[in-house]
Amino acid sequence: MFKNRSYCGELTVQDVDRRVELAGWVESNRNLGGIIFIKMRDVSGTVQVVFDSSLSLDTLKTADQARSEFVVFVGGTVRKRDEKNVNPNQPTGYIEVSAESITILNASQVPPIQIDAKETIGEETRLKYRFLDLRREEMRDAIIKRHQACQIIRNYLNNNRFFEIETPVLNKSTPEGARDFLVPSRISAGEFYALPQSPQLFKQILMIAGFDRYFQIVKCFRDEDLRGDRQPEFTQVDLELSFIDQAAIMAVIEGLLEEVVREVTGREISLPFRRLTYREAMDRYGTDAPDTRFGLEIADCSDIFRNSEFSVFAQALTGGGVVRGFSVNDAGKISRKMLDRFTEEARVFGVKGLPTLKYSNNAAEGGIAKYLGPEEIAELGNRFELSGQGTIIFAADEYHTACAALASTRVRVARELGLVNEDALDFLWITDFPMFEYSEEDGRFYSKHHPFTAPKPEFINALDGLKPEQADSVLAQAYDVVLNGVEIGGGSIRINIPEVQQRIFSLLGISKEEADTKFSFLVDALKYGAPPHGGLALGLDRIMMLLLKKKSIRDVIAFPKTTRGQCLMSNAPSPVSSDQLRELHLKVVDR
Ligand code: ASP
What we know:
The strands form 5 sheets. The protein has an 8-stranded mixed β-sheet with strand order 7-10-11-23-22-21-18-12, sandwiched between helices. The longest helix is centred in the N-terminal third of the chain and has 23 residues, at about 135-160. The mean pLDDT is about 95. It contains 15 helices and 23 strands. The chain is globular, with a radius of gyration of 30 Å. The protein is an alpha+beta fold. Bound molecules: aspartic acid. Aspartic acid binds near residues 491, 535 and 537. Aspartic acid (ASP) binds near residues 198, 490, 491, 492 and 536.
């Protein structure tokens, strides 16, 4: 029956006079008394189908009965639309199908979502009726674009001699920093698998096994509190390569992203991407994922205020902190009210406030101006160009706290003042990350990337007797790729020498026993000829969201979960029967 089916959205004036058969859904049905217009839809788009009054009564009756979202099979002939009915905004707007027959293949209840609705539909309804939501043009396009991006990725990597190899989903937990999702084992009572947070260990094992270039478009799972726009399961384009250095990995990724951008947006980007070291990014933008589509660069002002009489600055500096800030030449557009709001929002980062200084043509005149001496103001004038009218926003605190508050405020200000070029695709590499972070609370070092990341060779000797306050000083061969202020991927060159791996474990407080129980297979494998290797993982959901200019990653995932980790369509997660629990040797103790 469907052998000769044409696609609705692909018919053009080239098809005029062609007899076609279409299968799909009724998007709308207008009966103008004697003549019926059905907008018919399939995965390729829509086309207007016209049932002229010359058709048999039976055919017209069936056409009339085909309501919204009924599934129909239509036979007819393509013809040009009358001049006055042409719709140049629609791909099939110059033609229509003059129907000869219609069969209703299936009925539909009145849908709770109008598929061609112009107004926004509540997200809960969209997620609950995802099968209908996915029929909407916007969602359908996003899912198809994602498919196309995946094909491009596969082709590109295949052409670059990568092998696509699956790694297990039922695993031992890997120390990637987040909480694992656990799966109880029925056969081994009291034991659990962990869902992979990433295929890190397996991809390294594949390098040791000799598959010198691996990739996988792979689901990863992290049981985190779902702050903001995250998903408990997300998709990575995961890569690992042997006999390679950092620069070559970056070049492979740039080539890959160039093709993905071309496929998804039709645009060309320029290579190579700009590079910033972690330190530069932190100093100039307060974050390791800076949005550099606009200026508002942060400058350190600690030296200016060394002997300040302004107690807020003085206290921060004597406490070992910093005074940093950025200047907004805003012609007075930043109001007191806005500043209060920015300050309120910055408090979540731990700052007490955001002191501000208003200036006009090189003279300070508002905010904290009255607490500053003429020399301090002159120095500020040198540091920031205080021409025109503007505001300097400061943070005076411990370095990382000040950075976090200013980074976030910088983006807020740029958005509110319309300084962000929403059309830009600003790719950036961040390199030279520190190997470690030190947690005062836990009294130990943590890896900034993960424990398998190699230090830069010149820092190997610095590992011995590393002090907490030196945590930042040992640099790693680690790199992140950032797009428009969002980290879209990260990776590193790995340790391939067992002794170095051992030293890193012990610095991280991972005992030999712990290393043996958690990842002995990698430790073991490193002893049997591990080639130099490294890799990276890209976040596919985020990349698609940014390229398609969506507000949320949920808009580029076919079946996403809510921020509470629920699937509103299937109602997962859900309780299970006591029999299932018994089989798994589990008891639910509190709910
Ligand atoms: N496994 C790392 C991650 O998921 C990426 C990498 O180092 O390749 O972030």
